[in-house]
Design a protein that fits this description.
340 residues, 3-stranded antiparallel beta sheet, globular
Length: 340
Amino acid sequence: MATVPRARLILIGYTLVLGVVAGSASAELVRDARLKMGARFEVTAVHADAALARDAIENAYREIVRVESLISSWRESSETADINRAAGVHPVTVSRELYALIRRSLKVTDLTRGAFDITFASVGRLWNFKNPVPVLPDPDRLAAAMRAVGTTHVVLNEADSSVYLARPEARIGFGAIGKGYAANRAVAVLKNSGITSGVVNAGGDLLAFGRREDGKPRVLGVADPRRPDRTFAHLRLADLAIVTSGDYEQFFLLDGRRCAHILDPRTGYPVDHSRSVTIICQDAELADALATAVFVLGPADGLALINQLRGVEGFLVDAAGQLRMSRNLTTLFAKEEVLP
């Protein structure tokens, strides 16, 4: 799957919301930002013992590094790279952890009718959205790469946890689900380290747990897709993940058309149904994958999918700039006034 840009998520009143706790006599706030997985991560922990919070954050970052070493397709030593190198040659026995992640990814592909697909890695690398001069991939090369896309090319063997890519040119990648998985794992480590309130921001994939000292949830502002310095929605965030896919961080204009860095695995080309899609649920991994899938599916089909999923809400801004929401999203809206 091609790397998917994430809208800049702004935690409105972040210092204010967490600072209420941090400024009390019973709790300290510790925050640490680092570059991981090609993105800016920030881990925040609230605890009465600041030293314990710092140790917990260090443990969380060690876990993020471990996850990256497992799923990175760019690291030659990773299990994912082993699978890709052996494409069309032989199965590769992997850890149960990676095997389970691949299996869950394939289930999301089925759920989204191919709008999310980890086998799209063979096609995504043909596009370069950082080139100052827009260049479309050669149609013949794109068509050839598309023949290697599809879950039918991934053969799983539960007995020995092996993975086999049936076509030599097939590749898998976790660019549209990996940061969400890393956020899940980091939060699990924080909790196991004794932290009961915190936030993991994995390059825009945000997962919060616990509440403010007064029992109220944190409030999150989501950036306007055309005015990233401003917000257009404020959400209560308690033990939830929120992930946004947008068309404005990496794109180029070609003949007046905005070609965003979000590609349709079914066609190999950019989609322009929406300006941004935001998914909210308890699982950052699932939210990460669904944000991509709903963007690809478009407003009507994407919202129809969200409305069928229990515990998943979302909203999007369509190509015309209209805000469209899932059926029960308003239950998460912040009613109190939020100061920027």
